[in-house]
Structures are given as structure tokens and as C-alpha cells.
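User: quick one
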Amino acid sequence: MPYFLLSVCGFILIMVAVGLIRILRGPTNADRMMATQLFGTGGIAALLLLAAAVDVSAVADVALVLGLLAAFASVAFVKNASRETDDLKGGRSEVRPR
Amino acid sequence: MRFILDIFTVVLLSAGAFFFLAGTVGLLRFPDTLTRLHALTKADNLGLGLVAIGLLPRTGGLYAAKLIGVWLLVLVASSAVSQLIGRAARRGTLQK
Amino acid sequence: MTIASALYIGLAVLVLALASWTIFAQDDYAAIVGFVTYGLLLSLVWVSLSSHDIALTEAAIGGGVTGVLLLGAGARLRGAREPTGLERPGIARRVSAAALCTLISVGLALTVLILPEPAPTLAPSATANLAATQMGNPVSAVLLAYRALDTLLESAVLPLALIGVWSLASDRFWGGRPGLQYRADREGVLAFLAQLLSPFGVLMGIYMVWIGADHPGGKFQGGTILAAMWILTRMAGITDTPPISRRWLRIVLITGPAVFLAIGLAGFAIPGTFLAYPAGFAKPIILIIEAAMTPSIAATLALLLAGPPERKPNG
Amino acid sequence: MSAATLFGVCSAALVGLGLYGLIIHPQPLRKILAFNLLGSGVFLLFGVIARRGAASGLGGDPVPQALVITGIVVAFSATALAVALLLRLFHETGRTTLNADAPKNSSDNPPRKSPDS
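Assistant: Done. Structure below.
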């Protein structure tokens, strides 16, 4: 069974790594960020499988932290990308939240 | 019983791996940002979810709760982010 | 070749591929996205080197806050297009730089290959004295007991870096709120995410600090997660950075290092040297240090990420 | 070849790549990226030395591991300071280069006037 878990882990890693070709190709930065997002999810799945194969419980905490923060960069990306267009339209976007 | 649980794990992990395959193929082959986003969410939601559920019989207690927790976290975060990316892509604010 | 070693080789190839992309990509922003992915990948590498403490730190800092910092900087600098060809180093400089770097890499790689066998290690002495610190995680014991001086110095470096960042403010914004204000998302998707995720993140951060004494985790990992949650609510437009002139903020920032230093000085009085803990009280003292340091680390990291003040205190 | 040796060679290559980027790139932002890459190579080297020192039931020597944790946090604060310096330079001069002779960029997004100069 550990062999099966490790092979699935390797397969998923290969898949998300191939998906990283999107970072090379673009064309927009949103596409690049989506490849990063896919890589984050695949990395978490690979970690969970690795943890199950070798029985290390601390790895699950690493997966939790990654799960909590993997989407974080994408949020920053979207926020910054749309803020830039606000900048171009007129001044800095300093609209107070209501 | 052990045997049945192993079959369960094998089937779900294979299905999860398949969704990662589908996500990658979609991300590389689909023609524009929105369709690629569609492919990505399949891997995010289903792929990781199937892997997490497939591993459940091999664990127990707090560890199982963490497995499900990881999935729920990614589910919430990635669907929110996907919506943000999708909306920004449709408005064209992400084009360079 | 086993499956495990095939996995390691694949990871190493991927690390080098992403590193090369970060260096050689034409577009700056694409290079930053590559670096963010590289940070995520590194935490997998740390897990395969069985360094779970480092994997947690890398996942929180390398995969999380560094990415946000660099993506923000890249977006704000995108207006600046350098005149091309002006400063591009010539082919001679490129070749000589490549030759120098190859030389250094080969030298380092050869050093790695001829490292002494068996490797020198402090692991036996670290575990032998673990009982005296009443802790279960040897890495935390190194950080807070054996080499507490290093950690004390680090806790001084963080506020110093923050003072450096703040000192870059324009005079008219001094004492104001750091960073630009994020516009609240009209449809509320991000606010929903922040409200759903941040309670869980705060729980996770405190859990990391709590288990740090016995399992992988600790104040740096926990503090980073707390900082990330604050930044998330800030990006969603729910919270805002406080003006840096607020007294409560200064107190939060300085409490951790101050408590650490005070305990260090108290070591002169009771056991006899700086940063020595009285026998039998090591664990409670370490817990006090961790509890005091965590909010300071979280606030310092979040404000480092926000940058210098850019708005008036009331703006 | 063990995982430690493999990642040791990998970290040596990372140090070389990072150094190359640091020398070659004229833009400070790329220099910051390259410097972080160089730093991560050094951290990985420490991690390899820690892994080789695995003994007494531990996965690695805890002393280099603790050093790397300290290093990662300090590297982040140094990066934040460098980014702040760079943004300030951009706001002051409209340039993102350290070369004082370079002409100002002719972007349609002029930087804000410095209020205190």
C-alpha cells in the first residue's frame, strides 16, 4: 500500500508540475497565478499522501498551513491587479469601506 | 474489512489523481482564461477532496479531522479566489 | 531506484526549473509568480528532508507572506518601464558572471560530496539535555534554551527592520497609516472569505504556538499565520492598519522583545548568567517568552508587509 | 545517492543561479528575487547538513534547523526593507534603477511629487 500511495503522490506532482508550463506560456498573469494555485493544491494532496505513506503526523500541519495560505497569494494578486486599474483611472483608490 | 477499505482507498485516490490530470490538461489545452479557470476548480475541489476522503480509512481521530479541515480550507479559499479571478478576467482588468 | 528517490529527483529538478525561471524570465511579474510557486515547492523539499519545523516556517513565510509582499511591489512598479538596452550587461560580463557562478556552484557541490562521514552532529547532546528544558521538540529547545541568545537577537532585528521601513515615510505622512487602503469588495466575496477563514486561522496560529514546545511549530510559525490573517482582513477591506503613532501599537510591538530581554537580565540575578533559566522553571519561562513574543512577531510581520506610512493618521 | 546529497547538489546550483541573477539583472526588484533565491540555496545547504546529522531518533540535527528558521524570518524582514527602499526610490525619482545617469522613464503613470524635497 505505501507504494501505491507514493505512486499517486508522484503522479499528482508530475501533473501539477506539467501544469506549470502555464507559467511559461501565460499569456496573462491570471493564467500564471492559476498554475500556481493548481500547484498549491497538488502540493497539499502530495503532502497528505506522503504523510499517509510514511506515517508522520506533523506533515498534516504543514498541509493545513499551506491550505490556509496557498490561496493567499492569489488574493493579493487579484487585489493588486484590480487596484492598479483604479490607480490609472484617477488617483489612488482610497475609498473607505462602508 | 481491511480489504474493502483498501479498495475504497485505491478507488478514491485514483479518481482524485484523475481529476488532477483533468485539471492540468484543461489548464494547458483550454483556449481562454475563464475555461482554464473552470478546469482548475475541478482539481482544487474534487481532486483534493477525493484524495482526503480516500485517505480517511488509514487514519483516525484528530488526524482525520485535519484531513477534512485541509480540504474544507482549500474548498472555501479556492472557490472565493476563483470567483475573484473570473470576475476580474471578465472585466478585462487582468489583461496586460 | 525506489519510488521515494524518484520523487526526490523530480522535486530537485522542479526546484531548479522554477529557480531558473525566476532568474531568466523576461517579464518581472512572471518572475515573481514563479518565485511564489518556488516558495510553495520548497516546503515540500523541507518535508522530504524531515525538517518539519522548517517546512512549517517556509509554508507560512515563503509560500505566504513573501509572495504577497513581492506581488504587491511588482504591481506598484509595473508603471515603470526601464529603457531597454541601456543597462543590460554586455555579453562579456554575462559570460564572466556565468563562469564565476558556475565555479562557485561546482565548488559548493564538490564540498557537499566530500562532507565527512559520519557527519558531525549535535543531535545527541540536544536530546540528552532535553529533559532539563522539559520540552519535547528539540528545535524549539535550541531556539529558546540552548541558543536563546540568537533568538533574542532575532527578536531585536524584527523591530529594527520595521523602524527602517517606517523611516522611509514622507514627512507629511509620519505617524500615519501604513500602506494603501484596500477598497472593500463590492460583492463581498473577499469579505466572506476573510470572515470565514480568519477565525480558523487565528485558532491555527495559537495552536502552532501551543504545540511548539513538544511538536513542530512555535512562535514564528504561529505569529506568521496570525499576521497573514490580519493582512487577509485588510485586503478584504474589513480592517485597516492603525496609525503608527498609536501608543498601544508601539506597546504590542515591543512587549515580546522586552519580556525576552527582561528574562535574560533576570538570569544574572538567580542562576548567575545572562539568559540562564532557574532549574525546574525552564518550561514556564519559555512559555511566557513564547506567549509574549507571538503578538509582537505577528504585528511586526504584518506591518513590515504593509510598508511605510502613506496616509494621514485620520485618512 | 541519498536525498541529502541530492538536495545538497541542488542547493549548490541554487546559490550559483541566485548569484548570477544578482550580478546580471539591472532592476533592483529582480536583484531582490535573486538574493532571496541565493538565500534559500544557503538555507537548503544548512538543511542538508542538518539531515546528514540525523541521530538519536531525530530526523536531523536540530541546531542547523533552528538556525534556518531564524534565517527565514530575518530574510523576510530584510526583503521587506529592501522592497520599501525600492518603492520609495520609485516615488522619489520615477526610476527603479540605481544608475543616476539613466533617463527618466516616460510612463503615462507619473509618480507622485515628493512632498518633502
